[in-house]
Specification:
CATH class of the largest domain: Alpha Beta
Distance between the termini: 193 Å
Strand order of the largest sheet: 18-17-16-21-20-19
Radius of gyration: 60 Å
CATH superfamily of the largest domain: PAS domain
Number of strands: 21
Number of helices: 21
CATH architecture of the largest domain: 2-Layer Sandwich
Oligomer: single chain
Length: about 675
C-alpha cells in the first residue's frame, strides 16, 4: 500500500464503503461481495480488518484536526466527535454523543434561530456564523450531508477557534478607532496620491480630519475638480510652484490659503514627499501631511498689527511732541494715521467755539479735492460724531444717510471708513475721519487704533493749546513790559504810542492798529498814531464824538468788536477811506485815565477773527496802558509848560528889581542889564 496519507474525503469514502460491505454481510449478500471462488471466512476476515484499519485511520485524522468536529444526525444530535471538541468544551466524547449540538455549545435545550445547523438543514448548503462562548470566539461552519436523492441525512459541524484572530481584529479595530479619534481631534490630516501618466493625481487615501479642515468630503472634492479648486486665488502661484517641485522629485513644505466650504479662509502648512520610480523615471506617488495653521497665522497677523499700531502710536507721539503748534501737528497726525491704517484719504475737523462751527484743519486724498465748507455741530457725519461723541463706521459714505445732501453727489462712490471724536480734557474738540476704498472695510480692531490715535491727538492738541496760551501770555507780558519802559523813558506821547502799537500787534495777532485822540474843545477824535497800515489814509481819520464805532465807543466808554467788519451796525463809515487795506474784523476800546476820555485804541485783522474774552481783556489792558501813556505825556507837557512859565516869571521879576535899583542910582544905570546879559 502507498505511504501517502489519505485525505479526509478519501477516508470518508472508504468508511462508507466499509459500512456498505458490513451491511451486505449482515443481510447475507456475501456472494455479491467476495465472489463464489474464495473461501467465505478469509474474505470476511480481510474485510473486517480493512474496515478496522480505515476506521482507525479516519479516527486518527478526525482527532488530529485543530477544529472541533461533530457529525450530526438529521435531528442535529452528535453522532461522532473528535478530541479537539473534548478539549474545547471540557467534556468526554461519550458525554457529548447523542446530545444536540447547541446543548454542548450553549447549554440550552432549544437552539438559537440563527444557528447554522438549522439554517443548513433548510438551505441544504454551507452555513456559518461567528459565535462567542465565554471568553473565546468560534467560527461555526455546518456542511449538510445529502443522500443520492439530495435529501438531508445529517451534517458535519465544525467549530474553529478564532479567538486570537478576533483579538487581533479587535486590536486593529481599536487602533484604527484611536487613530480616527486622534485624527479627528487634531487639526492635521495625512494623504497619499498616486501619480499617473501626465502628472494626473489619483487619491489613494486621506484621513478623516480632511473633512474637518476643509468642510468637503473627499468625494465632494473630486466632484469639484480636485484639490486645486479650493486654493485661494492669490496663493495659486504658490500651489503651482509646489506642484512643480513635487513632480520633479523634491520634498516641499509650503504655506498657503484655502477657501473652506463655509467660505472661511484657512491657512495650511503642507509637507509633501514624492516617491521616485527609477524604472519609470518619474514620481509615482506623493505622501503628505497638512496642518491647519490658521490660528498661528492670525496670531502672527495680530502681532504684526499690534507692532504696526505701536509703531504708529510711537511715530505720532514723537512727531506731535516735536510740533510747536496745532497747524504743524495736525498734518503730521493725519499722515501717520493714514500710514498706520494703509488708507489714502482723511480729514481732521476742529471746532471753533467763537464761530460755533467745525472747520477742516487738515485734508488728504479726495477730501482735499472736495473742499468742504465749515459745518455746524450735528450736521453730516463729522457734525454728528462731534455732537454725540460716538464713533461712526460707514460702509460707503456716498450712500450713508448721515452724509450731507449738499456734498453727497461729489463724494466718490466705493469709499467707506470711520469717523472718531477727538477729545481734549473730556471735551470733544474735533473729529478724525479716515476713508478706504471698497471692498476693504474698516475692521473693529482698526477702529480701536483710530480711536487710540484720536486720543493721542486730543492730548497733544490740549498740550499745544496750553503751550500756545503760555507763549501768548509771555508775549503779552513782554509787550506790556516794553510799553512800560517806553512810557517811562519817552516823554513824547507820539513816540510812546508808536512803541505801544508796535508791541501790541503781535500779542493781539492784529494786522494793524491805531490811536485816535479826543479833542475836548472840538469834541472830535483825530489821528495820533498808527501801525501796520499799507498806506497813510488812516491818518485822515477824524470822527465826531458818537460817530461810527470809534465815536460810539468813546461816547459810551465801552469796547466794541466785530468778527466781520462788513456786518457792523451801524456800518463802519470809514470803509471807503480804508478800502485798500482789505480789513475784515475790527475792535475798538476807549482810552480813559482818571475818569477823563483821552481817545480810542483800534485793532484791525485782514481775515475774520473771533475776539475771545482773553483777547479782549488784553486789548483793554493795552488801551489802559495807552491811556496812561497819553496822560503821562500830557502831564509831562504840562509840567514843562509850567516850568517854562515859572522861569519866564522869575526872569521878569529879577529884571524888574534890577531896573528899580538903577533908577535909584543914575551913576550905575545899565550896569545890572549888562551883568544880566553876561
Amino acid at each position: 500500500m502507498s505511504d501517502k496519507k489519505p485525505s479526509y474525503d478519501e477516508l470518508k469514502r472508504r468508511l462508507e464503503q466499509a459500512e456498505a460491505t458490513l451491511a451486505a454481510l449482515y443481510r447475507g449478500e456475501v456472494d455479491l461481495i467476495i465472489g463464489r471462488a474464495e473461501p467465505l471466512v478469509v474474505r470476511f476476515k480481510s474485510l473486517v480488518e480493512e474496515n478496522e484499519r480505515l476506521g482507525r485511520h479516519w479516527q486518527a485524522t478526525f482527532d488530529a484536526a485543530n477544529d472541533a468536529i461533530w457529525v450530526l444526525d438529521p435531528e442535529h444530535r452528535i453522532l461522532q466527535s473528535n478530541q479537539t471538541a473534548e478539549r474545547f468544551f471540557g467534556k468526554p466524547r461519550q458525554e457529548m454523543i447523542g446530545r444536540h449540538c447547541w446543548e454542548i455549545v450553549h447549554g440550552n435545550t432549544e437552539p438559537m434561530p440563527e444557528y447554522p445547523a438549522l439554517r443548513a438543514k433548510h438551505s441544504l448548503r454551507r452555513e456559518s456564523m461567528e459565535l462567542q462562548v465565554g471568553d473565546r470566539w468560534f467560527e461555526v461552519t455546518v456542511d449538510p450531508i445529502l443522500d443520492g436523492d439530495g435529501n438531508y441525512t445529517g451534517a458535519v459541524h465544525i467549530m474553529s477557534d478564532i479567538t486570537e484572530r478576533k483579538r487581533a481584529e479587535d486590536t486593529l479595530r481599536e487602533s484604527e478607532e484611536r487613530y480616527r479619534r486622534i485624527s479627528d481631534l487634531i487639526t492635521d490630516y495625512a494623504y497619499a496620491f498616486r501619480v499617473e501618466e501626465g502628472n494626473k493625481l489619483a487619491r489613494e487615501w486621506v484621513t478623516d480630519s480632511f473633512t474637518r479642515i476643509t468642510g468637503y468630503t473627499p468625494q465632494e472634492m473630486d466632484e469639484r475638480g480636485g484639490w486645486s479648486s479650493i486654493i485661494h486665488p492669490d496663493d495659486m502661484p504658490i500651489a503651482l510652484a509646489r506642484a512643480r517641485r513635487l513632480f520633479g522629485g523634491e520634498n516641499d513644505v509650503s504655506e498657503f490659503r484655502i477657501i473652506r466650504k463655509d467660505g472661511k479662509i484657512c491657512w495650511l502648512r503642507d509637507h509633501g514627499q514624492p516617491v521616485w520610480d527609477e524604472t519609470q523615471g518619474r514620481v509615482v506617488r506623493i505622501y503628505g501631511a497638512a496642518k491647519d495653521i490658521t490660528e498661528r497665522k492670525q496670531a502672527q497677523d495680530e502681532i504684526r498689527r499690534r507692532a504696526s499700531e505701536l509703531e504708529a502710536v510711537h511715530k505720532v507721539s514723537t512727531a506731535l511732541r516735536a510740533a510747536q503748534s496745532a497747524e504743524e501737528a495736525l498734518p503730521i497726525l493725519l499722515d501717520e494715521t493714514l500710514a498706520a491704517l494703509q488708507a489714502e484719504s482723511g480729514v481732521i475737523w476742529l471746532y471753533e467755539p467763537p464761530r460755533g462751527e467745525l472747520r477742516a484743519a487738515a485734508t488728504r486724498g479726495w477730501f482735499h479735492d472736495l473742499g468742504e465748507p465749515p459745518i455746524q455741530p450735528g450736521e453730516g457725519i463729522a457734525g454728528t460724531v462731534f455732537s454725540s461723541g460716538e464713533t461712526h463706521v460707514s460702509a460707503e459714505f456716498a450712500a450713508d444717510p448721515l452724509t450731507r445732501a449738499s456734498v453727497r453727489e461729489r463724494v466718490p462712490s466705493g469709499w467707506g471708513g470711520a469717523c472718531v471724536p477727538i477729545r481734549s480734557a473730556a471735551e470733544v474738540i474735533g473729529v478724525l475721519l479716515v476713508s478706504i476704498r471698497a471692498p476693504r472695510q474698516i475692521t473693529p480692531k482698526e477702529t480701536k487704533v483710530l480711536e487710540a490715535l484720536a486720543e493721542i491727538a486730543g492730548a497733544a492738541l490740549h498740550r499745544l493749546s496750553l503751550h500756545d496760551e503760555a507763549l501768548r501770555r509771555v508775549r503779552q507780558l513782554q509787550a506790556l513790559q516794553t510799553i512800560d519802559r517806553a512810557i517811562t523813558a519817552a516823554p513824547d506821547s507820539r513816540v510812546t504810542l508808536t512803541v505801544l502799537l508796535e508791541q501790541a500787534l503781535a500779542p493781539l495777532g492784529a494786522d494793524a492798529a491805531g490811536v485816535l485822540l479826543f479833542d475836548s474843545h472840538t469834541l472830535t477824535l483825530e489821528y495820533a498814531a498808527g501801525c501796520g497800515f499799507r498806506g497813510r489814509r488812516y491818518e485822515r481819520s477824524r470822527l465826531r464824538l458818537g460817530e461810527g464805532q470809534a465815536g460810539l465807543a468813546a461816547l459810551e466808554r465801552r469796547t466794541i468788536c466785530a468778527a466781520d467788519i462788513a456786518q457792523l451796525e451801524p456800518p463802519f463809515i470809514r470803509l471807503p477811506l480804508l478800502a485798500g487795506e482789505e480789513l475784515a474784523s475790527y475792535a475798538v476800546a476807549p482810552l480813559i485815565a482818571k475818569g477823563q476820555l483821552l481817545g480810542v485804541l483800534e485793532a484791525f485783522h485782514r481775515a475774520p477773527f473771533e475776539h475771545s474774552r482773553d483777547w479782549l481783556r488784553f486789548f483793554e489792558t493795552i488801551a489802559n496802558q495807552a491811556a496812561i501813556a497819553i496822560d503821562n505825556a500830557r502831564l509831562f507837557e504840562g509840567l514843562q509848560r509850567s516850568n517854562l512859565e515859572l522861569s519866564l516869571a522869575y526872569d521878569a521879576t529879577i529884571e524888574g528889581w534890577a531896573r528899580a535899583l538903577e533908577l535909584r542910582d543914575q551913576e550905575t544905570e545899565g550896569h545890572t542889564r549888562r551883568v544880566t546879559d553876561l
